[in-house]
UniProtKB/TrEMBL annotation:
GO cellular component: chromosome, centromeric core domain; mitotic spindle; monopolin complex; nucleolus
MF terms (GO), sorted A to Z: microtubule site clamp
CDD domains with a match to the protein in the record: RWD_CSM1
Species this chain originates from: Tremella mesenterica
Biased composition (Basic and acidic residues): 64-80, 180-194
Protein's name according to its UniProt entry: Monopolin complex subunit Csm1/Pcs1 C-terminal domain-containing protein
Region (Disordered): 1-80, 171-194, 227-257
Upper classification of the organism: Eukaryota, Fungi, Dikarya, Basidiomycota, Agaricomycotina
Domain of life per record: Eukaryota
GO BP, sorted A to Z: attachment of mitotic spindle microtubules to kinetochore; meiotic sister chromatid segregation
Length: 377
């Protein structure tokens, strides 16, 4: 059987091999191999189509390797993008949880310190007002009863002379009825004493009522002052509503400590301790201080508190004045010369807080061994 002639490939066959054509070439190569095996049993040579099938198979392998490389590169890019998106998702979840926790804390924060203080003062003032009203009511009822009793005694006293003998034979009748008149006289004396004691009791009751009314007026003024102070505290807290809810971070606490240390280094005023407590007029802060000037030191306490101004209590403005209570400490261990040099700083005194700067400058001059102390200081 003669070998088939090689035919010239058309333009479509000369085009670059695609994946489908490579697979097709592989199939054709397998078919050619099977045909060649059949031909080897008989006479003839391997047809040229088998060589073309082998070539197509090699090209398909090279093409597959290049596509696998592209797929691996794309897979790596997708993997990196997936990792980045996963990290971003975790960050957003953490941020969401933080916001949820802060929102829950803010929701549980029912009122501020100023509002709680205001409610406390209002409740206390209302209790005092109710108690005073009850006392006044009871005293008023008691007073009315006393007045009724006095009136009845006066009426009884007025009716006694009408039953006595009239002029004309009064002396004879009185002589004959001396025993009955003596009894009437004793009865009148007893009633006069009862009326006198009741009048004294009535006067005491009226004085007590007047004192209660004065006390109620004072409590009302104090209540108005507390309300004005609470409103001022509430207004100041509303300027920064999140300041109390946001906790101080260690970084911020370190900044505050460094700032305080710088102030102490610049002024030589060392604040060793601070005590804070809540009083009737708000927060009371006590500073334990040590002032050093040219190697000489003085220990003292400063208590900062609020004091009501009587001239502003009845007005709508803030009636509170910031005050400072100065108390020296450890002077029993100092010499007499140093105590005399301190002047009025050697004893306790109270001053408005707006005078703190001038007092501090004067204190440094008196502590300094070389400071010039004038007669007016």
């Amino acid at each position: 059987m003669p070998a088939p002639k090689a035919t010239k490939k058309s333009g479509k066959e000369n085009a670059p091999l695609t994946k489908a054509r490579v697979i097709k070439g592989r199939d054709e190569g397998m078919d050619d191999d099977e045909g060649s095996n059949v031909d080897e049993e008989g006479p003839g040579k391997r047809p040229p189509s088998s060589q073309g099938g082998i070539t197509g198979s090699k090209i398909g392998k090279v093409k597959g390797k290049s596509e696998d490389g592209v797929d691996e590169k794309n897979s790596g890019d997708l993997q990196r993008k997936l990792m980045a998106m996963t990290a971003e998702r975790d960050r957003i979840r953490s941020q969401r949880d933080t916001f949820a926790t802060q929102f829950e804390e803010l929701s549980n924060l029912r009122n501020t310190e100023a509002e709680a203080l205001f409610d406390k003062f209002r409740s206390k003032a209302e209790q005092h007002a109710r108690a005073q009203t009850d006392v006044i009511s009871s005293l008023t009822v008691h007073n009315e009863k006393l007045q009724e009793k006095i009136a009845s005694l006066e009426r009884a006293l007025a009716s006694v002379p009408a039953g006595l003998p009239s002029a004309g034979g009064v002396f004879e009748a009185a002589a004959s009825k001396e025993g009955s008149s003596n009894k009437d006289k004793e009865r009148l004396e007893r009633r006069e004493k009862e009326i006198s004691s009741l009048k004294d009791e009535l006067a005491k009751t009226q004085a007590n009522v007047k004192e209660r009314e004065t006390r109620i007026s004072q409590l009302e003024r104090d209540y108005k002052a507390e309300v004005a102070h609470s409103r001022s505290l509430q207004a100041s807290s509303n300027r920064n509503p999140l300041a109390a809810s946001v906790s101080t971070t260690p970084e911020e606490a370190d900044k505050d400590a460094q700032s305080l240390k710088l102030y102490e280094d610049l002024t030589d005023l060392n604040i060793t301790n601070v005590k804070i407590k809540t009083g009737k007029a708000g927060k009371e802060v006590t500073f334990i201080c040590v002032q050093t000037v040219e190697g000489r030191s003085l220990n003292f306490k400063l208590r900062a508190y609020n004091e009501p101004d009587p001239s502003l209590v009845g007005k709508g403005d803030n009636p509170w004045i910031k005050m400072l209570l100065y108390t020296p400490e450890g002077l029993e261990y100092e010499d007499i010369t140093f105590k005399q040099r301190l002047g009025f700083f050697a004893s306790e005194f109270v001053a408005p807080r707006d005078q703190a700067q001038g007092l501090w400058e004067s204190l440094k001059v008196r502590i300094s061994p070389n400071g010039e102390v004038g007669d007016d200081e």
